[in-house]
Automatic annotation (TrEMBL):
The keyword Protein biosynthesis does not apply. This is All-trans retinoic acid induced differentiation factor. PROSITE patterns: EGF_1, EGF_2, EGF_3. The keyword Disulfide bond applies. Residues 1-30 form the signal peptide. Disulfide bonds join C197-C206. The lineage of its organism: Eukaryota, Metazoa, Chordata, Craniata, Vertebrata. The chain crosses the membrane at residues 214-234. GO terms for cellular component: lysosomal membrane; nuclear envelope; perinuclear region of cytoplasm. GO terms for biological process: negative regulation of osteoblast proliferation; negative regulation of protein catabolic process; positive regulation of bone mineralization; positive regulation of osteoblast differentiation; regulation of gene expression; xenobiotic transmembrane transport. Residues 166-207 form the EGF-like domain. It comes from Equus asinus. It comes from the Eukaryota. Keywords: Disulfide bond, EGF-like domain, Membrane, Signal, Transmembrane, Transmembrane helix.
Amino acid sequence: MAFRERGRPSSLVAWAAALLLALGVERALALPEVQKQLRSLAEAELLICIQCPGSVQNLSEVALYCKQTPGLMLHARCCLNQKGTILGLDLQNCSLKDPGPHFPQAHTAIIIDLQVNPLKDDLAGTFRGFTQLQTLILPQDVSCPGGINAWDTVTFYTNNQTCQGQRNLCNSTGDPEMCPENGSCEPDGPGLLQCVCADGFHGYKCMRQGSFPLLMFFGILGSTTLSISILLWGTQRRKAKAS
Ligand SMILES: *[C@@H]1O[C@H](CO)[C@@H](O)[C@H](O)[C@H]1NC(C)=O
Ligand SMILES: *[C@@H]1O[C@H](CO)[C@@H](O)[C@H](O)[C@H]1NC(C)=O
Ligand SMILES: *[C@@H]1O[C@H](CO)[C@@H](O)[C@H](O)[C@H]1NC(C)=O
Ligand SMILES: *[C@@H]1O[C@H](CO)[C@@H](O)[C@H](O)[C@H]1NC(C)=O
Ligand SMILES: *[C@@H]1O[C@H](CO)[C@@H](O)[C@H](O)[C@H]1NC(C)=O
């Protein structure tokens, strides 16, 4: 490995490194603890679920959906499947002016409740990538993202409105010219589309032929990540030993 200690490497350093490595391995073998850490790490990643205090409201549509569908569980403000994917999100009554920076974590959600929030009526772009979303509950004064044509039904109630059934606009716009010759139209959230290049094409308007050098890209990315991880691990170990 291309890491060199500052100054002359001594056998003492090598010995210490071996000891640290051994301690690390021993620690890693304490499986329940590792599993617990992994689980809290996974839950910590779902920041959108805990950014607003409390849990999914008992009688909300999100709670109903989560209880009716087998294999789903509630976690703070979210409804998750067994892999930890967000399928429901209940952020009602959270004093939100906008959904916040963690909102894209919920792009897999099927149902989202944002009612009783002082949201600004400008959710354009907020739901980019939310292709699974089928039910969205909003304060009454906020329009359904993508407009009325992006949904099968929009229903107004006294205190909220629901946007139901996301439409696939790739069909209804009926504009075959919209995507270039070697690309195809795919939905990208309510009222949003994207052009996906056919196999073997990439770049602007899918005009460049030849596959993107993915292997090289991920090869470089992977080895950089690995190096940084090892470096961080090393410094953490040293800090832990010093204290
Ligand atoms: C929510 O429902 C559960 C049972 O389904 C009940 O134990 C709990 O007290 C309820 N919480 C509230 C705040 O109503
Ligand atoms: C919103 O939360 C506040 C404080 O928790 C509560 O008093 C109020 O009744 C809630 N409003 C609705 C509509 O749930
Ligand atoms: C919308 O508000 C009405 C009251 O106007 C309430 O009865 C209904 O449960 C709310 N809908 C949802 C989906 O929470
Ligand atoms: C879109 O059109 C294709 C064929 O043109 C059809 O197979 C597909 O079901 C349509 N999708 C929707 C959501 O209407
Ligand atoms: C699309 O691909 C075909 C070959 O499959 C090629 O002849 C054509 O020039 C491509 N079109 C564009 C706009 O790049």
